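Help!! Second protein's tokens look totally different from the first
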Amino acid sequence: MKVFVLNKRRAVIYLSMVLCAVLLTVVGFSTSTSVYNDTTDKLLPIYSVEKGSEKVCALTFDAAWDDNDTDILIDILKKYNAPATFFMVGSWVEKYPDSVKKFHDAGHEIMNHSDTHPHIDQLSDAKIAQELKNCSDKIEAVTGVRPMLFRGPYGEYNNAVIREATNQNMFTVQWNIDSLDWKNLSADEITTRVTNRIAPGSIILFHNGAKNTPEALPKILEKLSAAGYKFVKASDLIYKENYTIDHSGKQIAE
């Protein structure tokens, strides 16, 4: 019978081989895990923007209801030198083109909020593309400017929605402060919600046609102005290139 003698030299060689095999296994596992994560990561829209101590924020309004407060909102925003971003549904643009033009001519920007306000994350890729394109076409026909920002109806989105917005040269934008004006909160409640949550780089959500927004808005603008905040359009708040978006949706310049 042949006896295998494991001397010191052979032991070192054997141990080295074992360690190499283990290392290769770990590296291979890590690589395959990384690839798996890269293909399944959820894309995120922009919820807010990292601005350090620079006190800037964006006022945004979703327009899908009536247009009764168009002139009121324009007057309030003008008084406080507060440009805003209006995310408009295509059917609203089609129904109220004069209001769309009024907002645009007053210096506010008009952006894409889908064409018919569907649950867009439940649509096929083709229907998502059509929703975005139709809305942008209608806005451009009235204002002469094609939207560069998109916000999903009900705040809904998925990877397909964000990818299609990108394909149509739009950034997908959400918010990090919801005024909850759509719940018919009182003007004081709306004011408190917004002013207590404000931070540099915030994106604030309001709605046109909300019952108490016209009453709350002057109070909010006065308080934020007194705190040193400057109001900018959402397209001026965000970074267009060389940025990352963290797990909370905050856009950070690289």
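Here's the second one for comparison:
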Amino acid sequence: MHFENNLSFAQKMDREDPLAGYRNEFLFPEINGKRVIYFTGNSLGLQPRAAREALNVELEDWAKYGVEGHFHARNPWFAYHEFLTPQSARLVGAKEKEVVVMNGLTVNLHLLLVSFYRPTSSRFKILCEKKAFPSDQYALETQIRFHGFDPAIALVEVAPRVGEHTVRHEDVLALIDQHADQLALVMIGGVNYYTGQVFNMEEIAAAGHRAGALVGFDLAHAAGNIPLKLHDWNVDFACWCSYKYLNSGPGSVSGVFVHERHTSNEEIPRFGGWWGYDKESRFEMKPGFKPIHSAEGWQLSNAPVFSMAIHKASLDMFDKVGMDALRAKSEKLTAYLEFVIRTISVEVSNANFEIITPTNPQERGCQLSILAHGQGKMLFDKLMAEGVIVDWREPNVIRMAAVPMYNSFEDIYAFGECLKKSIS
């Protein structure tokens, strides 16, 4: 597609955008009385306008019913998590029995590792990507130590080649094959938080299984960003947060996927809780954990209704729009953002921006990460003063996400103008 770095072109693209109206369904922060250009949906999504009403409904029913709200609220709390199941399953390409919404992301990762990292003296290694998000790194390290192994030996990291910023797919497959005899688990961030690289999860899952390992993914930067087909890809387990692209509020609940081949296996080790107990006999209060034969069998506690209410308001929008439509817009938005950045790098002196996110649309979502050569954090500070909210990572990386649910082409053009003004 032929792009132009001017306002009239950006406005024309917005007029032709079938999803443009959804921008009005979100609340934008303001700086100095002016609506910001918000490119940090990869860190915390904007608040949906529907969130306040969704939360008020539950507050009103709590006031009206007290404990009886578990059964008599407009959205009865007793099984509130079940309201989120169909939409969550569609979002990640799963069967309904394979998903549940519960807890927080790293809590869920640990719970899943209890079940799916079962090392032996001969098969004990975990393969992950170099520079995984710190929570993943810490979770894997501490799980390895918990089982009595040394992370320096048991944690195998696949890294970019010297002089490159992203991991080559063939290097992932080669490292799986190299460690096949000792590999217990492959656990990778489906979309890397730092570079925005999308990994080929289907082929990684197949390679891991050929090696005799189980395969899981952290989808914090993938859910709501790229189309997923976890069931068809034969992934063993996955988890994701809801506060980034899913716009469900700071620290909101996490989603879990467990492939159906595992959900009826009561012999899988796990940490049990009352809410994961068989629904038909839960209130008999008997000793001996009897798990639900679905992903719900990994639940520990009852639903945090207030955060789930906001999450449901957001999922309602995702369900209405659909990931295919969001992805189609996302590819255009991100390509336009790339075009504007590259144009500025050519036309403006002292502008030396290197995009470290893959250029292939199949290998990225809506995030672009750029190395701002010759620029320090002052560039970030100047952008903030201009009303642009992006993410700065030392020493000189700017991460930004043009989120298709609420960002516009005019946002991108305006960002480019602010970027030119801010270059030192």
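Reply: Different proteins will give different token patterns, so don't panic. The domain at 55-321 is CATH 3.40.640.10 (Aspartate Aminotransferase; domain 2).
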